[in-house]
Amino acid sequence: MGDRVISPDHTALPGSSPPAAAPPSLQVDDLAFAYPDGRQALFGVDLTINRGERVALLGPNGAGKTTLVLHLNGILTAGHGTVTVGGLAVAKQNLREIRRRVGIVFQDPDDQLFMPSVAEDVAFGPANFGVTGEDLRARVDTALATVGMQEHRDRSPLHLSGGQRRRVALATVLACEPEILVLDEPSSNLDPVARRELAEVLLGLDATMLMVTHDLPYALQLCPRGVVLDDGVIVADGPMRELLADAELLRRHRLELPYGFTLS
Amino acid sequence: MAGAGHGHPLHLAGTSPVHRLPAEVKIVAAFLGVVCVVLTPREAFPVFGGYLVLLAAIWVVAGIPPGWMVRRSVIEAPFVVLAVLLPLTGGGPHVEWLGLQLSEPGLLGAWNIIVKGTLGVLTSLTLAATTSLRDLLLGLQRLHAPALVVTIVTLMLRYVDVIAAEGRRMRLARISRGHDPRFLWQAGATARGVGSLFVRSYERGERVHLAMLSRGWTGAMPRLSETPTTRRDWVAGLAPVAVALGLAVTGWVTA
C-alpha cells in the first residue's frame, strides 16, 4: 500500500466548528470491515463531520467508498470500530432512528424510486418512520418544493427525465428530515443543465452532507472540505481546493482533474 | 388521476361514479357477480339476458362504449372454439339442425360455457376498464391480501417498464453489432441476452432492496391512500350484485 498524506488541520477551517452543544453529525472511529469472503475493505477509518459541513468523499474505484457509506446507516455492520450519527451509535437497537438520520441518495434513481408515483415515493420514507396524515402530506409537499418538483407529484418516475428523477430521489430522502445527507455520485448521468440545477438545489439546502464522487470539479463547487479514501483508509483530509491543487496526491490515488482544468 | 402512466391496455380512463368507486368494492362486487352467474342454472335462458342488461347499464353509467368492450372480449375466442365442438362430439339424444346431428346435452353444455364465460369476461373487463392497476393494488391491500403479494405487485408495476427498456437497449446494442438472427440456431446471442437481463434485474432487485431498507422499510408497504371507504361506497358498489342475486334466485325458482 502507498504512503499516506494526512492533512490534519481541517478542523481549523472557517465555519466548520460546531455549535458548542451539538454532537457531530457523523463520527466514524477506527472502522474496519471485511466482507464474508475475507476481502478486507476498510482498515481503520476515522472521520468526523460536524453539523452543517459539506464534505466530498473522493477515491478511486475499489477504495471502499461504498462500503463506508453502507456502514453509515447500518446496512453493513462494523467488524471493528464505531459509527455514531448525531450522538447515536449505529447499532441494531437504534437501526430505525439511524436510518431516519442518515439519508442516502443512491447512484441510480431507478433503484431508489420504486413506487407508482412521485408523491407516494416521497411519502414512503416518512411513512415508514411513523409520520401519518396531515404531517405526512406536509413533509411530501415541502420536500418536493425544495427540489422544485411539486408539479410532477402524481407522475410515474418512469416518465421523468434523468435530472428530475435525481431530484425526486433527493426529495425522498429529504422528506425523512435526515441529520446527514449522503449522496452517491450525484452528478453521474446528468446533462450539464441538470447537473447545475442539482448543484443549485444542494447548495440551497441547510444540511450536513457527505458526497461520494469521482467528479472533482463538482466536489469543488459543492464541498469546502474533501476526504480521500484509498485502500480502506483515509489518506488525506483538508480543504477541497488544496487537495485538488496537490497534483502528487491526486496522482498517487488515481484521481485526476478533467482535461483542461488546473488549480493553483 | 394519481398514478398516471399506469394505465394498462384494458383500462379506459374516466371519472364516472364507477371509476371513482374504491377498488376493493369493485373487486368484491365483480367476484360476487361472477359467482351469481356461475350458480345460475343453464336452462334459465332469460336470466342470462338479465345479467347482460345489468352489465350494459353499468357500462352506460361508466361511459364505456359497448364496441370497446366487444373488441376486448375476443380474448375469450379460444374457449368459444372449444364450446362449439361439444354439440358435435357429445352423446345422448340428438337434434337435427341444417342436416347436422347435434347432441342435446352437448348443445346445453356449449351454451353453458359460452354464456357464463362471456358474462365472466365482460364483468372482469368492466372491472379492468374502470380501475387502474394502482387502484387494483390499493384494493388488494385493503382486502388484506398478503403484504408480500402487494409488495411484489407494486415493484412489478414499477420495474416491468424499466426492465423492458433495459432489454430494448441490449437488443439495440446487439443488432448494432450486426446481429441478425434469422434461424433458430442463431438465437444463442438472444438467449444469452435474456440471461444477462435476468442477472441484471436480479442485481437491481438487490439495490432496490438496499435503498428501501435505507428508508426504514420493515416489510410492509405503507398505505397507498388514506381516503376511507364509506358505507355508501359499499352500498353503491354492491347494488348491482343485489340485482344479480335476484336474477340468480329467479333462475333457480323458474328452472
UniProtKB/TrEMBL annotation, chain A:
Pfam families: ABC_tran (PF00005)
Keyword set, alphabetical order: ATP-binding, Isomerase, Nucleotide-binding, Transport
Residues of the ABC transporter domain: 26-256
GO molecular function, one term: ATP binding
SMART domains: AAA
Residue ranges, annotated region (Disordered): 1-21
Listed SUPFAM superfamilies: P-loop containing nucleoside triphosphate hydrolases
Keyword Ribosomal protein: no
InterPro entries recorded: AAA+_ATPase, ABC_transporter-like_ATP-bd, ABC_transporter-like_CS, ABC_transpr_CbiO/EcfA_su, ECF_ABC_transporter_ATP-bd, P-loop_NTPase
Keyword Phosphoprotein carried by entry: no
Family: Belongs to the ABC transporter superfamily.
Protein name: ABC transporter ATP-binding protein
UniProt source species: Pseudonocardia xinjiangensis
TrEMBL record, chain B:
Classification via InterPro entries: ABC/ECF_trnsptr_transmembrane, ECF_CbiQ, ECF_transporter_component
Transmembrane segments: 44-62, 74-90, 110-131, 143-160, 234-253
One Pfam assignment: CbiQ
Main location: membrane
Membrane topology of this protein: Multi-pass membrane protein
UniProt protein name: Cobalt ECF transporter T component CbiQ
UniProt entry tagged with the keyword Transcription: no
Subcellular compartments: Cell membrane
CDD domains registered for this protein in UniProt: EcfT (cd16914)
Keyword tags: Cell membrane, Membrane, Transmembrane, Transmembrane helix
Organism: Pseudonocardia xinjiangensis
